[in-house]
Each structure stands twice: as structure tokens, then as C-alpha cells.
Amino acid sequence: MKNIAIISASVRNGRNSHRVALYFKKFLEENKLANVKILDLKEYNFPIFEERLRFISNPSEAMLSFADEVTKADGIIIVTPEYNGGYPASLKNVTDLLYAEWKRKPIAISTVSAGAFAGAQVLTSLQFTLWKIGALTIPAMFPVGTVEKTFDENGLPSDEAATDKRAAIFVNELLYWVDAKHKMEIE
Question: Where is the NADPH-dependent FMN reductase-like domain (predicted)?
Fold first, then answer.
């Protein structure tokens, strides 16, 4: 079975994007699509990094654990809120911490906002950053607008059938690229 890591990017108090991370964990596990681990940046509570992991003389256990989880993952779903048209510093922080771990890693992005535009503005800047470090961002998207109305605090969607239908397309695209990468590594 594939290993999918879900990065929950917000570290804010009262965050709502984490609801979507909880939803994807449940969706993947209930449909037996992958083994899933949420990498909750709020729980890691990382400091602002001054250097890439490979150049840090005494990396913390949390840094090494995060790098290991990203490395072990066959694919990643990033759930990120949009803050003023960009993604949170916590996500930029861990993106810049690693380098080789992102190389050719299939990554699906779910953007989240409290407003109706569903975090659409954050997508371009995040994709560009991931592209620059060699990650493979998949073309499918999972935008979530008015998140507090769309998902409850436990990650349950207000319209389960429609949400599951959208999620299946999004997740299947990620799994396609995970399989394609694996096939290329075998040949």
C-alpha cells in the first residue's frame, strides 16, 4: 500500500484548514487507498530555520523526523490556507528546510480560505516554489472556499457525496503520478 503524507500547513490558533487535512486522512483510509500520516506543522512547532537540513550541524529530532516522513512518503498532499494571497510562513519554512527530499516527489495541493475564492491566489506561488526545488506538483487541485461552512472541526464535509466525488478525482490524480514515478524508477 502507498504511503501518503498530508502536510497541514497552518499553525494559527483557530485554524480551519486543518479540517481539510482531517478529511483527506479519513477519505484515504476509509477507501483503503493509502497508509496516511498527517504532518501537522502546528505540532512540530519548528523555529525559523537558518539553513537547509543537510548543512545544520545539530538538527533537532523533529527536523530529522519531518525529513524522514517526507522521504518515506510516496506522495504528499499539502493543505494550505491562503493568507493575504500567499501561503503561511510555516510552510515556506519546511519547504526550504529540505531539498533532496522534495526531488520528484508527487505533491497535490489543496488550497483553503474562509472566502469564496478558495485560496486560488496561493496556488501559483506555492507551485513555483515546489517546482524550483524539483518537486512534481500534480495538475489536479482541491480548492475549498468558505471552509468553516464546508467542513466541520472534525473534517466532516457538509455535502459528503459531492466532496467525496471531487476528492476521488484529486486523489486518483496524485496516485497516478505516484504509480508513474514508481514505474520510471523500476525501468
Answer: 3-145
